[in-house]
């Protein structure tokens, strides 16, 4: 299995996080890996009310999750648009075949630096005996960030269920269905993911975070002069560019 090197930068921010249980603003930097392109950095900013995911300080495109309204906004600067995705409750959507889940705990990584006196642990996720996902996680690290991630996954998976019936049968892949639709975010129950990857070479690794970050409120303001529409409006052909 090919994946990029796992590494964590341990600094003062981690030591501060270890003795502060109150949710604070947090800035997290990742390095992302996708097949065929050079690794690149991304930034995640989480507060009590918002989560923002972008490419860094000068990024004009970003995803904003309003934790109070339970809505995701995708901002596209080139198109000058804001697309919203809200949670949709669905109960009658089922996978076309049984998805047998299996999680293997490969134990703590002995060579990895400890965080809050805990060693990161490696987990492998299988669906119908096929390897789907690897995660190195730290239990108890940044619990409010993990909660925000879980909230986000709930919205994304609920939206995926809405359109699942339109997915062609030849695209019914057990791993993809589990990770994006029926068991999305299951890895988060094992703690904050400091490294995660799939067999196809897609992955993400933590490179740094600041648990004492003071977020600029402007990061969570949507552009006023952009065209706004919901993802459902787009699917129904109601959006004209």
Rg, Å, rounded: 19 Å
Helix content class:
10-25%
What is the total number of structural domains? 1
Measured distance between first and last alpha carbons = 42 Å
The biggest sheet amounts to: 12 strands, mixed
Tally of helical runs: 4
Task: Describe the structure in your own words.
The chain is of the alpha+beta class and 241 residues long. It has a single domain (12-235), classed as outer membrane lipoprotein receptor (LolB), chain A. The protein is 17% helix and 33% strand. It is built from four helices and twelve strands; from the N terminus they run αβββββββββααβββα. The protein has helices at 12-18, 143-163, 174-182, 231-235, and strands at 26-33, 40-46, 50-54, 62-66, 71-76, 81-86, 101-108, 121-127, 130-138, 192-197, 203-210, 227-230. The chain has a twelve-stranded mixed β-sheet. β8 and β9 form a beta hairpin. The relative contact order is 0.23.
In brief:
By secondary structure, this protein is α+β, with helices and mostly antiparallel strands. It is built from 4 helices and 12 strands.
Annotation keywords:
4 helices; alpha+beta; globular; 12 strands; disordered N terminus; outer membrane lipoprotein receptor (LolB), chain A; 241 residues
Task: Chart the SSEs and their pairings.
Elements: H1 12-18, E1 26-33, E2 40-46, E3 50-54, E4 62-66, E5 71-76, E6 81-86, E7 101-108, E8 121-127, E9 130-138, H2 143-163, H3 174-182, E10 192-197, E11 203-210, E12 227-230, H4 231-235
Parallel strand pairs: 6-12
Antiparallel strand pairs: 1-2, 1-11, 2-3, 3-4, 4-5, 5-6, 7-8, 8-9, 9-10, 10-11
